[in-house]
Amino acid sequence: MNNSEVVKVFQDIADLLELRGENVFKIRAYQKAARAIEHYPRELEAMVEEGDNLRSIPGVGEAIAKKTTELITTGKLGYYESLKAEFPRGITNLLAIPGIGPNTANKLSSELGISSVDELERAINEGRVAKLFRLGEKTADNILHQIQALRRKDQRIPIGEALPIVEEILTTLRSIPGVRNLTPAGSLRRFRETVGDIDLMGTADNPKEVIDAFVALPLVRQVLAQGSTKASVIVSGGLQVDLRMVEHDSFGSLLQYSTGNKQHNISLTEKWHKQGTKLSEYGITVIATGKLEKFATEEEFYHRLGLQYIPPELREAQGEIEKAEQGAIPKLVELSDMKGDLHTHTEWSDGHDSIEELARAAQDMGYQYIAITEHSAGRGIAHGLDVDRLREQVAEIRALNERSAGIRVLTGIEVDIRADGRLDLPHEILSELDIVIAAVHSAMSQSEEKMTRRIITAIENPDVDVIAHPTCRLIGEREPVAIDLEAVFQVAAKYNKIMEISAMPDRLDLKDIHAFRAREWGVKLAIGTDAHSIAHLALMRFGVGVARRAWCEPQHILNTLPLEELLAVLDRNNH
Ligand code: DGT
Ligand code: CA
Ligand code: CA
User: Fold this and answer.
1) Class assignment of domain 251-325?
2) pLDDT one-digit tens code per residue, 188-204
3) CATH level 2 (architecture), domain 157-246
4) Domain locations in the chain as residue ranges
5) Which of 15, 126, 256, 572 is 20 to 30 Å apart from 356, CA to CA?
6) Which atom of ligand 1 is least distant from the CA of 192?
7) pLDDT tens digits for 493-506?
8) Ligand 1: which of 183, 199, 281 to mutate, most ligand atoms within 8 Å of CB?
9) How confident is the model over 546-573, as pLDDT tens digits?
10) DSSP for 353-388, written as a single string
11) Mean residue pLDDT across the chain
């Protein structure tokens, strides 16, 4: 049973308890546990097998730990089964739609026999739902809108697609005179790998002007709602974008309220409620006096609560509030810490530009080094390099380094890991290179056991420095391979080998929670763009986003090292 199946059960339990009219704290405990598990970096099944205490997960208490263990070991939860039996079949599907509360759900279920979202949609279109309610058409229409919004949200958009669209919107709107703040909030600001919708927050001398310009943007396909301080639109590509404008002096409060994931916000609210304050999008209200304190910046907001500032990428309810209380928030790696790119392709294999063009572009970015890592020829990839061509390339790179200063071009390869874990190229040539990246590109349907063994064999190979995109996933296109990453990280830590975070937005592999675990194992990480052209070098920021979500500091990332120190690390690996 995987984590998302466990999450579903606890969400259902919370809904059913609500339906039963149970105590709100009891309901919240299940909601909180569901969200904590949703974002937890380890598979609970593995934790149970290894006898680890589930209570180490923030938000999971004694009772829920016990239920989780029952669920995972037996595949069933007695409590859940008996709770479900009290209610009509499929009622939790209806409760998942925003705006449908217990009464409505009961009515839809008992009077129309509806047990799924699809059935509900059909009933609305056939006019059966309108007849059921006093408000008729309007209620039915609202529900239909919520269903559509939910479906849109289910089709999450990769951050690599969303961010450029958002930046285009921001550039246009920021040029309006009187605009003082305009910032993305929500999952985009937290740098999640996919986003459900975009939340923009701003302040301006004349907010209405900004709203009007927003809904009139050329990429807007549909205006869902428009008022004087907020609007919602659908842009080309189907992405929903919400914009909200507030007064300058409460911008920090609003931005804070709209950034953290829901559980981060709820945890803060609950904690400070106990201390006699109420948190809202408008600021902090002292309950005893009713006085509202506003915050122009998020820093002031967190400091008022006695907390260190928490970077958006950490606001995922993974223990960041406790760390902020202790003043122990890490100083996360930043784009400006990156000293070079360790994974690139040129026209020598399937890339677009020449070595020198790529090197100059990297130098212009302020990098100290760039590694050229073409594909190997063995697996028949178009223009992969065999031993002879690789030797030829190494000679060219050495000549380039001799005649031009300013940036060091490192010789390298992205060598294919064959199905049995052996590499595509022999030791003689690999040992001559500055950096050897090994990666899987074929036979991806192997069993977990085989794939794990395959990657570990590559890690144990003394010629290998880095393992790239170990799960081979392509976001929205190809599922990750079956692999035991815990076992992989353990071996990588033992041999001081490096695991790559691919910055390519459709890969982001290692992903956030895996990079988080690798770091906890003490595995050093590298961020590589896998650039196939000069333009791709700029994708580094997506990899840095993943590293930040993994709580990485510069010291955890190999290519924050200056050239000499980097070479020392790579040398140690190779000899
Ligand atoms: P998404 O859009 O699914 O990728 O994820 P988010 O995190 O952007 O979520 P969204 O768009 O539903 O909400 C935007 C922000 O609003 C989110 O960062 C946190 C906040 N938020 C959402 N629901 C609640 C809530 O029930 N209570 C509180 N305090 N904040 C919430
Ligand atoms: Ca959002
Ligand atoms: Ca939203």
Assistant:
1) alpha beta
2) 999 999 999 999 999 99
3) 2-Layer Sandwich (3.30)
4) 3-154, 157-246, 251-325, 335-572
5) 572
6) 4
7) 999 999 999 999 99
8) 199
9) 999 999 999 999 999 999 999 999 986 5
10) S-HHHHHHHHHHTT-SEEEEEEEBSTT--TT-B-HH
11) 93
